[in-house]
Design goal:
Blueprint (H helix, E strand, L loop, with lengths): L1 E5 L7 H16 L3 E4 L22 H28 L10 H6 L6 E4 L27 E4 L11 H10 L6 E3 L2 H10 L5 E3 L9 H7 L11 E5 L7 H12 L2 E5 L11 E3 L4 H10 L2 E4 L2 H9 L3 E5 L6 H9 L6 E2 L2 H6 L2 H5 L5 H22 L3
Length: 372
Amino acid sequence: MKIGIITIHCSNNVGASLQTHALYKKMIEIGHDPTIIDYRPWYFIDLMDEKKAIERKILHNRLKLFFLGNILNAKHDKFMAFESNYYPRKTKRYDTADDLIKDPPIFDGYVCGSDQIWNPGHIHYDGAYFFNFITHLESVKISFAASLGQDHLDETGKNFLKKMITNLNYISVREDTAVSLLCNELKIMNVEQNIDPTLLFDSNYWRTLSTPVQNQQIGDYFLFYPLTPNPITEGIIKRIKKKTGLKCVTVSTGLRKPGGTDIQISLFDPLLFLSLIDNAKLVLTNSFHGVVFSLLFKKRLISYKREERNCRIDSLLRLLHLNDIQVTSINDYSQRDWNQLYEKYDGIDQILEIERVKATQFLTNALRNGKY
């Protein structure tokens, strides 16, 4: 079948890019012919995208460009190169939901997922991520590991989700809390939980993609990948450095170097990101995909909680029986028996292999069977 995939593929975010590639590759692996629906709404495209010319004139963006313009340009080019190489087949570009409705891409089947495509605020209540632009076709429409990104929705969000989800024939979400919300609160039946697409492939596969770190002066290090700020990180970094003697390498395009950082890497792409995690002695992060790849590469991981939208990590760690690898305070970090926690890594591969089989069966059966 010719399959159209819609997901958040264009935000210059390493996790979004890698999950798009993984879903694309999985479709090929199970015998289908995938194409990325190149939907680039204004709220996801990078500041350096040609469509963001007006936004670049805003004062705070002008200041950002003054200090980081060369890095942002180079990073944007790297992500565009990743798209070309790792999900090379795309439709024409669609910039608005109306563009999709006026000239919808035609496929035998449609898959939406993963990432936070069903977080109403995150997608600005956009029905495109539920295929509202496909109204006259009998093609099968399914979600795969779609993420709500939060445990609770307000009534507006619930009503939006309940209305939009009726467009789909088969439903798969990422978080266990999303299953509960859809089934128990919205009374939507036949909802399956599946792992994020990046987890469908093991560490050996991801190592074939990674780009070696070029800076030979880095030496041994632990990696700090902060997706959102948290006041506990500087204290944890100090304790890690004192305990291990390792340098702190931080991956961030922010203008201000995080406290405790020895080396900041501002220019990176998904392939360098993989290598930086794989070569780290330890990883400190509150990024979902930072956690994913740390676990796939069996890195000593310390995950610190985000103040909101943490359910994606919570759900994954519950699945892998690694809840205690996440901390909420410096005291948490100090009191944990980390060596004992890391011994639990022995069970990860077995759990993930079961989940991979389950996910493959869901995709295969849903695309084969069509409507209920």
